[in-house]
Design brief:
0% strand, mainly alpha, 118 residues, 5 helices
Length: 118
């Protein structure tokens, strides 16, 4: 079972840790990636959210001394598209907490196959 968030502050902490690079590279898990992506998608357009995620991941990798080749553009785009599809499938009145928890429940297994060719 996925650890679920109880309030928006917990989600905002994950996003802040990512954006400020205060989260350790090994602490930024698949669930953290999903959390940040949901936050961005809920607060901007899909294109803007993708750009935020892309620039954030590249900054995060650079900060932690990980080469930029670790970043996979098509993989990120595929995950963002998949997350957006889940969000669109949910009740539009769901809170950020409810949406994030639903996405984590559905996509929390990082072994889910995504189409990297998009």
């Amino acid at each position: 079972m996925v650890n679920q968030y109880k309030n928006e502050h917990e989600i905002e902490d994950v996003v802040a840790g990512f954006e400020q690079c205060t989260t350790g590279k090994d602490e930024f898990t698949h669930l953290s990636h999903l959390t940040v992506a949901v936050y961005y998608l809920r607060n901007s357009t899909p294109d803007q959210a993708f750009q935020q995620m892309r620039s954030g991941l590249l900054r995060f990798l650079d900060h932690h001394g990980v080469g930029p080749t670790k970043y996979k553009e098509q993989l990120t785009l595929s995950w963002m598209t998949l997350i957006q599809a889940v969000i669109e499938d949910l009740d539009p009145d769901f809170s950020l907490v409810e949406v994030t928890n639903a996405v984590l429940a559905r996509l929390g297994d990082s072994r889910i196959a995504v189409d990297e060719r998009r």
